[in-house]
Write a structure and sequence with these properties.
Helix content: 25-40%
Number of strands: 14
Number of helices: 9
Shape: elongated
Structural class: alpha+beta
Strand content: 15-25%
Order of helices and strands: EEEHHHHEEEHHHEEEEEHEEEH
Protein backbone atom coordinates (compact mmCIF):
# COMPACT_ATOMS: atom_id res chain seq x y z
CA UNK A 1 0.00 0.00 0.00
CA UNK A 2 1.10 3.57 -0.67
CA UNK A 3 0.73 6.74 1.37
CA UNK A 4 -0.49 10.17 0.37
CA UNK A 5 0.46 13.71 1.29
CA UNK A 6 -3.26 14.63 1.10
CA UNK A 7 -4.88 12.03 3.36
CA UNK A 8 -3.47 10.89 6.73
CA UNK A 9 -3.05 7.18 6.13
CA UNK A 10 -2.19 4.44 3.70
CA UNK A 11 -4.08 4.11 0.44
CA UNK A 12 -5.85 0.88 -0.47
CA UNK A 13 -7.57 -0.31 -3.63
CA UNK A 14 -11.29 0.29 -3.89
CA UNK A 15 -13.10 -2.57 -2.07
CA UNK A 16 -14.60 -5.03 -4.51
CA UNK A 17 -18.13 -6.41 -4.33
CA UNK A 18 -16.73 -9.93 -4.02
CA UNK A 19 -13.90 -9.15 -1.62
CA UNK A 20 -15.69 -10.82 1.30
CA UNK A 21 -15.63 -14.15 -0.55
CA UNK A 22 -11.99 -14.58 0.47
CA UNK A 23 -13.16 -15.06 4.03
CA UNK A 24 -14.27 -18.60 3.24
CA UNK A 25 -10.63 -19.65 2.79
CA UNK A 26 -8.93 -20.23 6.14
CA UNK A 27 -5.50 -19.64 4.62
CA UNK A 28 -6.32 -16.08 3.54
CA UNK A 29 -6.08 -13.37 6.17
CA UNK A 30 -9.01 -10.98 6.25
CA UNK A 31 -8.22 -7.43 5.17
CA UNK A 32 -9.23 -4.54 7.38
CA UNK A 33 -11.67 -2.10 5.75
CA UNK A 34 -9.90 0.75 3.97
CA UNK A 35 -10.06 4.24 5.39
CA UNK A 36 -8.63 5.85 2.26
CA UNK A 37 -8.60 4.53 -1.31
CA UNK A 38 -6.34 5.32 -4.21
CA UNK A 39 -7.34 6.56 -7.66
CA UNK A 40 -8.15 10.19 -6.80
CA UNK A 41 -5.04 11.85 -8.30
CA UNK A 42 -6.67 13.03 -11.58
CA UNK A 43 -9.16 15.04 -9.53
CA UNK A 44 -6.40 16.44 -7.31
CA UNK A 45 -4.52 17.56 -10.42
CA UNK A 46 -7.70 19.10 -11.87
CA UNK A 47 -8.26 21.04 -8.63
CA UNK A 48 -4.66 22.29 -8.64
CA UNK A 49 -4.94 23.36 -12.29
CA UNK A 50 -8.17 25.18 -11.42
CA UNK A 51 -6.45 27.26 -8.76
CA UNK A 52 -7.54 25.27 -5.70
CA UNK A 53 -5.29 23.62 -3.13
CA UNK A 54 -6.09 19.85 -2.98
CA UNK A 55 -4.70 19.73 0.57
CA UNK A 56 -7.32 22.24 1.68
CA UNK A 57 -10.09 20.40 -0.13
CA UNK A 58 -9.04 17.13 1.50
CA UNK A 59 -9.49 18.53 5.00
CA UNK A 60 -12.37 20.96 4.48
CA UNK A 61 -15.34 18.99 3.23
CA UNK A 62 -17.47 22.04 2.55
CA UNK A 63 -14.74 23.85 0.64
CA UNK A 64 -14.67 20.66 -1.44
CA UNK A 65 -18.48 20.83 -1.81
CA UNK A 66 -18.27 24.40 -3.10
CA UNK A 67 -15.43 23.58 -5.49
CA UNK A 68 -17.30 20.63 -7.02
CA UNK A 69 -20.52 22.65 -7.33
CA UNK A 70 -18.60 25.39 -9.17
CA UNK A 71 -16.85 22.97 -11.56
CA UNK A 72 -19.60 20.54 -12.53
CA UNK A 73 -18.27 20.32 -16.08
CA UNK A 74 -15.58 17.84 -15.04
CA UNK A 75 -18.29 15.22 -14.50
CA UNK A 76 -18.59 14.91 -18.27
CA UNK A 77 -15.51 12.67 -18.15
CA UNK A 78 -16.23 9.30 -16.49
CA UNK A 79 -12.65 8.85 -15.30
CA UNK A 80 -12.72 12.27 -13.63
CA UNK A 81 -16.07 11.49 -12.01
CA UNK A 82 -14.58 8.31 -10.56
CA UNK A 83 -11.52 10.18 -9.27
CA UNK A 84 -13.73 12.87 -7.72
CA UNK A 85 -15.87 10.23 -5.97
CA UNK A 86 -12.78 8.69 -4.43
CA UNK A 87 -11.44 12.05 -3.33
CA UNK A 88 -14.82 12.93 -1.83
CA UNK A 89 -15.07 9.62 0.02
CA UNK A 90 -11.59 10.07 1.44
CA UNK A 91 -12.51 13.58 2.58
CA UNK A 92 -15.59 12.19 4.36
CA UNK A 93 -13.29 9.72 6.13
CA UNK A 94 -11.09 12.64 7.24
CA UNK A 95 -14.16 14.41 8.63
CA UNK A 96 -15.30 11.25 10.46
CA UNK A 97 -12.22 9.22 11.45
CA UNK A 98 -14.24 6.08 12.30
CA UNK A 99 -15.61 5.84 8.75
CA UNK A 100 -14.34 3.18 6.38
CA UNK A 101 -14.91 2.33 2.73
CA UNK A 102 -17.10 -0.61 1.79
CA UNK A 103 -18.87 -1.88 -1.31
CA UNK A 104 -22.60 -2.58 -1.35
CA UNK A 105 -24.52 -1.82 -4.52
CA UNK A 106 -22.05 1.07 -4.91
CA UNK A 107 -19.03 2.35 -2.98
CA UNK A 108 -19.89 3.80 0.42
CA UNK A 109 -18.03 5.39 3.29
CA UNK A 110 -19.49 4.83 6.72
CA UNK A 111 -19.80 3.10 10.06
CA UNK A 112 -22.34 0.61 11.32
CA UNK A 113 -24.61 3.51 12.25
CA UNK A 114 -24.48 5.51 9.02
CA UNK A 115 -23.14 4.99 5.52
CA UNK A 116 -22.82 7.50 2.70
CA UNK A 117 -22.89 6.47 -0.99
CA UNK A 118 -20.22 8.76 -2.38
CA UNK A 119 -21.38 8.76 -6.01
CA UNK A 120 -24.84 9.78 -4.82
CA UNK A 121 -23.43 12.65 -2.77
CA UNK A 122 -21.34 13.76 -5.75
CA UNK A 123 -24.49 13.92 -7.88
CA UNK A 124 -26.32 15.80 -5.13
CA UNK A 125 -23.55 18.41 -4.94
CA UNK A 126 -23.91 19.11 -8.66
CA UNK A 127 -27.70 18.81 -8.97
CA UNK A 128 -28.76 20.14 -5.57
CA UNK A 129 -26.02 22.36 -4.14
CA UNK A 130 -28.65 23.90 -1.84
CA UNK A 131 -28.49 20.70 0.24
CA UNK A 132 -25.10 21.74 1.59
CA UNK A 133 -26.37 22.65 5.08
CA UNK A 134 -28.54 19.55 5.28
CA UNK A 135 -25.43 17.47 4.58
CA UNK A 136 -23.55 19.40 7.26
CA UNK A 137 -26.28 18.51 9.75
CA UNK A 138 -26.02 14.85 8.79
CA UNK A 139 -22.28 14.86 9.43
CA UNK A 140 -22.76 16.71 12.71
CA UNK A 141 -25.21 14.04 13.92
CA UNK A 142 -22.93 11.16 12.93
CA UNK A 143 -20.84 10.89 16.15
CA UNK A 144 -23.99 10.71 18.26
CA UNK A 145 -25.43 8.11 15.89
CA UNK A 146 -22.31 6.01 16.47
CA UNK A 147 -22.69 6.33 20.24
CA UNK A 148 -26.36 5.37 20.01
CA UNK A 149 -25.44 2.41 17.84
CA UNK A 150 -22.91 1.22 20.40
CA UNK A 151 -25.56 1.45 23.11
CA UNK A 152 -28.03 -0.53 21.00
CA UNK A 153 -25.39 -3.11 20.17
CA UNK A 154 -24.56 -3.56 23.84
CA UNK A 155 -28.23 -4.20 24.58
CA UNK A 156 -28.47 -6.72 21.74
CA UNK A 157 -25.46 -8.66 23.04
CA UNK A 158 -26.37 -8.41 26.72
CA UNK A 159 -26.33 -11.84 28.34
CA UNK A 160 -29.79 -12.95 29.39
CA UNK A 161 -30.39 -13.95 33.00
CA UNK A 162 -34.14 -14.17 33.51
CA UNK A 163 -36.28 -16.89 35.05
CA UNK A 164 -39.11 -17.84 32.74
CA UNK A 165 -42.40 -19.21 34.04
CA UNK A 166 -43.66 -21.83 31.62
CA UNK A 167 -46.91 -23.77 31.68
CA UNK A 168 -46.73 -27.28 33.19
CA UNK A 169 -47.86 -28.72 29.87
CA UNK A 170 -46.16 -27.83 26.60
CA UNK A 171 -48.20 -26.31 23.80
CA UNK A 172 -49.39 -28.87 21.27
CA UNK A 173 -49.69 -27.35 17.82
CA UNK A 174 -52.72 -28.56 15.89
CA UNK A 175 -51.94 -30.25 12.56
CA UNK A 176 -51.68 -27.80 9.69
CA UNK A 177 -53.65 -28.65 6.59
CA UNK A 178 -51.35 -27.27 3.90
CA UNK A 179 -52.86 -27.26 0.39
CA UNK A 180 -50.73 -27.37 -2.74
CA UNK A 181 -50.24 -24.22 -4.78
CA UNK A 182 -49.22 -24.10 -8.43
CA UNK A 183 -47.27 -21.64 -10.55
CA UNK A 184 -48.31 -20.38 -13.99
CA UNK A 185 -46.83 -23.50 -15.60
CA UNK A 186 -48.81 -25.88 -13.40
CA UNK A 187 -45.86 -26.92 -11.23
CA UNK A 188 -46.28 -27.30 -7.48
CA UNK A 189 -44.61 -24.38 -5.65
CA UNK A 190 -42.13 -25.61 -3.07
CA UNK A 191 -42.52 -22.83 -0.52
CA UNK A 192 -39.63 -22.65 1.91
CA UNK A 193 -36.97 -23.64 -0.63
CA UNK A 194 -38.01 -21.83 -3.79
CA UNK A 195 -34.75 -20.05 -4.46
CA UNK A 196 -32.32 -22.83 -3.54
CA UNK A 197 -30.22 -20.50 -1.41
CA UNK A 198 -29.97 -17.90 -4.19
CA UNK A 199 -31.70 -14.58 -4.71
CA UNK A 200 -35.29 -14.33 -5.95
CA UNK A 201 -35.97 -12.58 -9.26
CA UNK A 202 -36.60 -8.86 -8.99
CA UNK A 203 -40.23 -9.10 -10.07
CA UNK A 204 -40.98 -11.53 -7.22
CA UNK A 205 -40.92 -8.64 -4.76
CA UNK A 206 -44.00 -7.10 -6.40
CA UNK A 207 -45.99 -10.34 -6.75
CA UNK A 208 -48.44 -11.73 -4.20
CA UNK A 209 -49.53 -14.92 -5.87
CA UNK A 210 -50.80 -16.96 -2.91
CA UNK A 211 -51.08 -14.97 0.32
CA UNK A 212 -53.84 -17.41 1.30
CA UNK A 213 -51.15 -20.02 1.96
CA UNK A 214 -50.95 -18.65 5.50
CA UNK A 215 -54.63 -19.29 6.29
CA UNK A 216 -53.84 -22.61 8.09
CA UNK A 217 -52.00 -20.56 10.72
CA UNK A 218 -55.33 -19.25 12.03
CA UNK A 219 -55.97 -22.56 13.81
CA UNK A 220 -52.61 -22.17 15.56
CA UNK A 221 -53.57 -18.69 16.79
CA UNK A 222 -56.77 -19.99 18.33
CA UNK A 223 -54.95 -22.94 19.91
CA UNK A 224 -52.28 -20.65 21.38
CA UNK A 225 -54.88 -18.34 22.91
CA UNK A 226 -56.69 -21.34 24.36
CA UNK A 227 -53.43 -22.73 25.77
CA UNK A 228 -52.50 -19.43 27.42
CA UNK A 229 -55.99 -18.95 28.88
CA UNK A 230 -55.89 -22.51 30.25
CA UNK A 231 -52.62 -22.20 32.15
CA UNK A 232 -52.26 -18.49 32.98
CA UNK A 233 -54.48 -16.04 34.82
CA UNK A 234 -55.55 -13.95 31.85
CA UNK A 235 -58.78 -12.50 30.50
CA UNK A 236 -59.40 -12.73 26.77
CA UNK A 237 -61.54 -10.08 25.06
CA UNK A 238 -62.69 -10.83 21.52
CA UNK A 239 -64.16 -8.51 18.93
CA UNK A 240 -64.27 -7.92 15.17
CA UNK A 241 -62.69 -4.77 13.74
CA UNK A 242 -64.31 -2.51 11.16
CA UNK A 243 -62.18 -4.21 8.49
CA UNK A 244 -63.49 -7.63 9.48
CA UNK A 245 -60.32 -8.79 11.23
CA UNK A 246 -60.64 -10.73 14.48
CA UNK A 247 -59.10 -8.93 17.46
CA UNK A 248 -58.17 -10.79 20.63
CA UNK A 249 -56.82 -8.91 23.64
CA UNK A 250 -55.14 -11.01 26.32
CA UNK A 251 -55.05 -9.14 29.63
CA UNK A 252 -53.01 -10.94 32.30
CA UNK A 253 -53.05 -10.01 35.98
CA UNK A 254 -49.25 -9.59 35.76
CA UNK A 255 -46.99 -9.03 32.78
CA UNK A 256 -47.42 -7.66 29.29
CA UNK A 257 -50.80 -7.44 27.60
CA UNK A 258 -50.98 -9.01 24.11
CA UNK A 259 -53.33 -7.88 21.35
CA UNK A 260 -53.68 -10.06 18.25
CA UNK A 261 -55.29 -8.76 15.06
CA UNK A 262 -55.96 -11.75 12.86
CA UNK A 263 -56.78 -11.66 9.15
CA UNK A 264 -56.71 -14.41 6.54
CA UNK A 265 -53.20 -13.40 5.50
CA UNK A 266 -51.37 -12.29 8.65
CA UNK A 267 -51.38 -11.82 12.39
CA UNK A 268 -50.40 -8.47 13.91
CA UNK A 269 -49.01 -8.63 17.44
CA UNK A 270 -48.94 -5.74 19.89
CA UNK A 271 -47.52 -6.42 23.33
CA UNK A 272 -46.17 -4.60 26.34
CA UNK A 273 -45.71 -0.90 25.78
CA UNK A 274 -44.31 -0.60 22.25
CA UNK A 275 -43.58 -4.11 20.93
CA UNK A 276 -44.92 -4.71 17.43
CA UNK A 277 -44.57 -7.76 15.21
CA UNK A 278 -46.31 -9.31 12.23
CA UNK A 279 -46.41 -12.90 11.11
CA UNK A 280 -45.59 -13.26 8.32
CA UNK A 281 -43.61 -10.03 8.01
CA UNK A 282 -44.28 -10.02 4.25
CA UNK A 283 -46.46 -12.12 1.94
CA UNK A 284 -44.79 -11.28 -1.39
CA UNK A 285 -43.44 -14.09 -3.58
CA UNK A 286 -39.82 -13.20 -2.86
CA UNK A 287 -40.27 -13.79 0.88
CA UNK A 288 -40.33 -17.55 1.00
CA UNK A 289 -42.04 -18.07 4.33
CA UNK A 290 -44.32 -21.03 4.91
CA UNK A 291 -47.30 -21.59 7.16
CA UNK A 292 -45.03 -23.73 9.34
CA UNK A 293 -42.38 -21.01 9.76
CA UNK A 294 -45.06 -18.43 10.58
CA UNK A 295 -46.55 -20.79 13.17
CA UNK A 296 -43.09 -21.26 14.67
CA UNK A 297 -42.66 -17.51 15.04
CA UNK A 298 -46.07 -17.07 16.63
CA UNK A 299 -45.47 -19.85 19.14
CA UNK A 300 -42.05 -18.54 20.13
CA UNK A 301 -43.29 -14.97 20.51
CA UNK A 302 -46.51 -15.53 22.44
CA UNK A 303 -45.18 -18.27 24.73
CA UNK A 304 -42.08 -16.21 25.49
CA UNK A 305 -44.09 -13.09 26.39
CA UNK A 306 -46.34 -15.06 28.74
CA UNK A 307 -43.30 -16.71 30.36
CA UNK A 308 -41.63 -13.36 31.09
CA UNK A 309 -39.34 -13.30 28.08
CA UNK A 310 -40.18 -9.86 26.67
CA UNK A 311 -37.75 -7.00 27.15
CA UNK A 312 -38.37 -3.43 26.02
CA UNK A 313 -35.88 -0.61 26.56
CA UNK A 314 -36.93 2.90 25.52
CA UNK A 315 -35.60 5.45 24.82
CA UNK A 316 -32.15 4.31 23.73
CA UNK A 317 -29.72 7.14 22.97
CA UNK A 318 -30.56 10.61 21.73
CA UNK A 319 -32.35 9.14 18.72
CA UNK A 320 -34.85 7.58 21.16
CA UNK A 321 -34.71 4.14 19.63
CA UNK A 322 -36.56 1.13 20.93
CA UNK A 323 -34.75 -2.09 21.84
CA UNK A 324 -36.83 -5.25 22.11
CA UNK A 325 -35.87 -8.81 22.88
CA UNK A 326 -37.83 -12.04 22.80
CA UNK A 327 -36.20 -14.70 25.01
CA UNK A 328 -37.73 -18.13 24.50
CA UNK A 329 -37.99 -20.93 27.06
CA UNK A 330 -35.45 -23.02 25.12
CA UNK A 331 -32.81 -20.33 25.69
CA UNK A 332 -32.84 -18.88 22.18
CA UNK A 333 -34.46 -15.68 21.04
CA UNK A 334 -34.10 -12.59 18.93
CA UNK A 335 -33.63 -8.88 19.43
CA UNK A 336 -34.21 -5.79 17.35
CA UNK A 337 -33.59 -2.08 17.57
CA UNK A 338 -34.80 0.98 15.74
CA UNK A 339 -37.40 3.68 15.77
CA UNK A 340 -40.74 2.82 17.38
CA UNK A 341 -43.78 2.61 15.15
CA UNK A 342 -44.07 6.14 13.67
CA UNK A 343 -47.85 5.95 14.08
CA UNK A 344 -47.49 6.01 17.88
CA UNK A 345 -48.23 9.52 19.25
CA UNK A 346 -45.51 11.33 21.18
CA UNK A 347 -47.60 11.35 24.37
CA UNK A 348 -47.92 7.59 24.23
CA UNK A 349 -44.16 7.25 23.72
CA UNK A 350 -43.58 9.32 26.84
CA UNK A 351 -46.03 7.16 28.78
CA UNK A 352 -44.25 4.03 27.51
CA UNK A 353 -40.88 5.40 28.61
CA UNK A 354 -42.30 5.92 32.10
CA UNK A 355 -43.74 2.39 32.27
CA UNK A 356 -40.64 0.69 30.91
CA UNK A 357 -38.36 2.73 33.16
CA UNK A 358 -40.02 1.11 36.15
CA UNK A 359 -39.43 -2.45 34.91
CA UNK A 360 -36.29 -4.30 36.05
CA UNK A 361 -33.87 -3.73 33.19
CA UNK A 362 -36.83 -3.53 30.80
CA UNK A 363 -38.06 -7.10 31.42
CA UNK A 364 -41.80 -7.62 31.72
CA UNK A 365 -42.75 -10.04 34.51
CA UNK A 366 -44.17 -13.45 33.67
CA UNK A 367 -47.88 -14.02 33.66
CA UNK A 368 -49.26 -15.66 36.78
CA UNK A 369 -49.87 -19.39 36.47
CA UNK A 370 -53.26 -20.71 37.47
CA UNK A 371 -53.45 -22.94 40.53
CA UNK A 372 -55.55 -25.30 38.43
CA UNK A 373 -55.98 -25.28 34.64
CA UNK A 374 -59.38 -24.25 33.34
Amino acid sequence: MTTSDLFPGTLAPMPGATASATLIWPSVESVAPARFVEGFKPFAAFARDSGADPAVLATDLFALWDFIAAHAEFLDAPEMTEAASRFLGNAIAVAHPAARWRMTSEPEVGTSAMSIPVAGVLRAIVEHPEQREAFREILASWPQADRDDLESSALAHHEVDVDLVVAPMAFARPPLAIPEFFDDDGRVIDYGSRWAGGSPPDDAYSRLAHPERFAPVLSVVDALVEHLATWYVVDVDRRVSESGARVMCLRPTTGATITLTVSAESVDIEAGALFRDRAPVCTCDACDETAESVADNLEQTLLAIAAGGLREVFPVGQRRWLHTRIHTPDGSGRSSGGQPDPAIPAKRLDEAADVLGRLPDGWWPAWTLRAEPV
